[in-house]
Amino acid sequence: MSQSAVLSPIAVTASMDDYFRDVVDEAVRAHRVDASAAVQVYLVQLLAEFGRPGEDLGSAMDGAPTILLHEAMHAPPSREKFTKLRSLGDGVLYHLGFFGDHVAGRGVDKSYVAQVGSSAYENAAAMLRSQHGSAPGTTDVLTELARKFERFVEVLAHVADRAMAQSAMGAQGVVKVYERWLRTGSTALAAGLAERGLNPTRGGMA
């Protein structure tokens, strides 16, 4: 899935926050993810940030994730270290959700990469706990993201599929949505096809 195919419906949305708030809520309910309100707000903000035109989508994933994690883990405790860890968690979460097929296509184990993202969030949360104790807030959000990382990848994948279905142009675009639905069984893609009056089945579209 190309980045332009994912971002095109967002560009014409008056408020990205409103768009992502609705679709994140839909995704959480569709996948029955036990997500706190604070984490849902975090995901909306993350998506809005990556969805801004001109945003450098690769900046958080320049280099092998394991190397980036190693470098961040061995940096002296500082605001910069915390930012690197959280940004790595954000980058891995976003890329696995939106471009997981490309990750798998390169022969990379998605579960292993997810562990890197989870570890980045957990270590960022640990830094906050060491500085501020167990007070609720960002620490809780990062810990929840770490512990349910792969579930939140599913949430972002749903968001990506919803965007793809909404941005499909012409017959060729719809066919691509259907072909992806055949591979993934995505409920978001099925809903997008249904909104176009199409009933996706394994033997074709009615």
Number of domains: 2
Distance separating the two termini: 24 Å
Strand order of the largest sheet: 1-2
Overall pLDDT score: 81
Counting DSSP H or I runs of 4 or more residues, the number of helices is 10
- Rg over CA atoms, rounded to whole Å, is 18 Å
List the helices and strands in order: HHHHHHHHHHEE
* Total number of beta strands: 2
Structural class: mainly alpha
Shape: elongated
Query: How much of the polypeptide forms β-strand, as a percent range?
Result: under 5%
Biggest sheet layout = 2 strands, antiparallel
Give the uncertain stretches in residue-range form.
Answer: 1-14
Helix content: over 70%
Outline the structure in words.
This protein has helices spanning 3-11, 16-30, 37-51, 65-73, 79-105, 110-132, 138-147, 149-167, 170-184, 187-195; strands spanning 200-201, 204-205. The protein is mostly helical. The chain has 2 domains: 3-165, no CATH class; 168-206, no CATH class. Helix 6 runs antiparallel to helix 7. 39% of the residues are buried. The model is unreliable at 1-14 (pLDDT under 50).
